[in-house]
């Protein structure tokens, strides 16, 4: 096993730069640099020198013993003064040591996975944590990183292994006519896990929204002021506005943070009957995107105008062009021109989305959703086989094994090389 090293903090000038070393020669490398190996997990101030004895920097050095580090290997962290020249000199000195090489992207985390310091879901949580842009994303990634999903999977697995063992016991004793009927306990075990998995599957969609963003569509008749409102929310002229009805044709997307949640805001073509072929395509797109959006802001300049779209639960009906707030009251009213009412509307959108996000599960990726769905399908079949009677026990046991396999994939207990490549591609060097 090579000993690897890399700059773990961002490149460039900074207060402190952190260089990580991991592998069997980590302490040896520290000794080469400092003439000493400080006590593990203690910060020690040391002078670092190159092979010729030239001083490179004075740094804080922390050593971690094998089995008690992020990677699980013997490792060390050097906290250097954050100058590009110092970092380069230290990295060069490390590169000149026999048996050391620069780490590949994500290699420290890969070793942590290989040494079972993290499970696969935690690695994904870590990748998301690094990518997190909003508060909700940070909290969710941290939840996954802490191993919540892995703990749940372990519980489900134990229950299913017990169910399979009960069934297999009856197969072994089939000839001896064991009178014991295990099916009530087996059905109970399967049923409990299925309930958990179903709730996890429901929360998974919300978790994906927190990760990838909610879609909020602004819809309504032409000239309602949709594009003006989008621009006000975005703080820039993302969409063309004009007094001509039918100005917006394409769906315009702006990513932003609303109340701590990642949101993609959509501006859409004004909805009406039209002879104009191009406008008609725009309206078709508007309806399509609005249908799949998580929330619709239905904007009307006139309280009595037809909204041209069927509102759903959670959708906001908003009166536009209320520049001075005089129409405020029963209706939510805003002005994209003066900004009147926008804070109240944003608070309402964020409250609705936050409410939905609170049901998010720790299964946050498409891969998790698929594994949970597969496990559920197998458990459904297993339950049916058990209900069909004693001569179907081998089939029931097989279905249980398939379900356990799907759950194992979730936390990476089985061959996951192909998934790994995809996950680690998002990591930077030094992680
Ligand atoms: N006074 C006032 N005028 C507004 C407000 N919002 C929009 N307008 C005006 O209303 C007209 C239409 O605005 P747009 O933002 O283009 O309306 P739209 O709903 O995007 O229109 P389409 O894209 O054609 O469907 C423009 O002349 C805007 O200046 C507002 O809050 N107050
Ligand atoms: K317009
Ligand atoms: Mg528009």
From TrEMBL:
GO MF entries: GTP binding; GTPase activity; metal ion binding
CDD domains referenced in this protein's UniProt entry, alphabetically: trmE, TrmE_N
Biological process, per Gene Ontology: tRNA methylation; tRNA wobble uridine modification
Binding site for Mg(2+): 227, 248
Residues at which (6S)-5-formyl-5,6,7,8-tetrahydrofolate binds: 20, 77, 117, 431
Alphabetical list of SUPFAM superfamilies matching this protein: P-loop containing nucleoside triphosphate hydrolases (SSF52540), TrmE connector domain (SSF116878)
Cofactor notes: Binds 1 potassium ion per subunit.
Compartment(s) where it occurs, according to its Swiss-Prot or TrEMBL record: Cytoplasm
Cofactor field: K(+)
Entry's Gene Ontology cellular component terms: cytoplasm
HAMAP family: GTPase_MnmE
Subunit structure: Homodimer. Heterotetramer of two MnmE and two MnmG subunits.
Function: Exhibits a very high intrinsic GTPase hydrolysis rate. Involved in the addition of a carboxymethylaminomethyl (cmnm) group at the wobble position (U34) of certain tRNAs, forming tRNA-cmnm(5)s(2)U34.
Annotated protein name in UniProt: tRNA modification GTPase MnmE
UniProt lineage: Bacteria, Pseudomonadati, Pseudomonadota, Alphaproteobacteria, Rhodobacterales
């Amino acid at each position: 096993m090579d000993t690897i090293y890399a700059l773990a903090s961002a490149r460039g000038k900074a207060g402190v730069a952190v260089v990580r070393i991991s592998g069997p020669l980590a302490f040896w490398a520290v000794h080469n640099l400092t003439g000493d190996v400080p006590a593990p997990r203690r910060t020690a101030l040391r002078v670092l020198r190159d092979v010729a004895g030239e001083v490179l920097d004075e740094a804080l050095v922390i050593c971690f013993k094998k089995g008690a580090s992020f990677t699980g290997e013997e490792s060390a962290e050097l906290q250097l003064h954050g100058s590009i020249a110092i970092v380069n000199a230290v990295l060069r000195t490390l590169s000149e040591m026999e048996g050391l090489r620069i780490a590949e992207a994500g290699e420290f985390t890969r070793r942590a996975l290989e040494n079972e310091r993290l499970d696969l879901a935690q690695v994904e949580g870590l990748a998301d944590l690094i990518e997190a842009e909003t508060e909700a994303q940070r909290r969710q990634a941290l939840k996954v990183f802490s191993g919540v999903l892995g703990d749940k999977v372990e519980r489900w697995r134990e229950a299913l292994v017990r169910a399979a063992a009960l069934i297999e016991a009856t197969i072994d004793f089939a000839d001896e006519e064991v009178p014991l009927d295990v099916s009530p306990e087996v059905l109970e075990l399967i049923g409990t896990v299925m309930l958990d998995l179903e709730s996890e599957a429901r929360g998974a969609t919300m978790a994906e929204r927190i990760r990838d963003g909610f879609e909020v569509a602004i819809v309504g008749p032409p000239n309602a002021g949709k594009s003006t409102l989008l621009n006000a929310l975005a703080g820039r002229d993302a969409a063309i506005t004009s007094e001509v009805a039918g100005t917006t044709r394409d769906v315009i997307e702006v990513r932003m943070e609303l109340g701590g949640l990642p949101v993609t805001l959509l501006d859409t073509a004004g909805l009406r009957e039209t002879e104009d072929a191009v406008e008609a395509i725009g309206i078709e797109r508007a309806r399509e995107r609005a249908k799949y959006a998580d929330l619709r802001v239905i904007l009307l300049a006139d309280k009595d105008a037809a909204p041209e779209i069927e509102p759903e639960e959670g959708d906001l009906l908003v009166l536009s062009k209320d520049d001075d707030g005089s129409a405020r009251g029963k209706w939510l009213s805003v002005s994209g021109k003066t900004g009147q009412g926008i804070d109240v509307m944003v608070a309402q959108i964020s409250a609705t989305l936050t409410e939905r996000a609170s049901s998010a599960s720790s299964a946050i990726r498409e891969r998790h959703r698929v594994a949970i769905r597969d496990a559920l399908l197998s458990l459904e079949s297993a339950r049916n086989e058990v209900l069909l009677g004693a001569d179907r026990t081998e089939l029931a046991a097989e279905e249980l094994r398939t379900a356990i396999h799907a759950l194992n994939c979730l936390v990476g207990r089985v061959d996951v090389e192909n998934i790994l490549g995809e996950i680690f591609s998002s990591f930077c060097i030094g992680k």
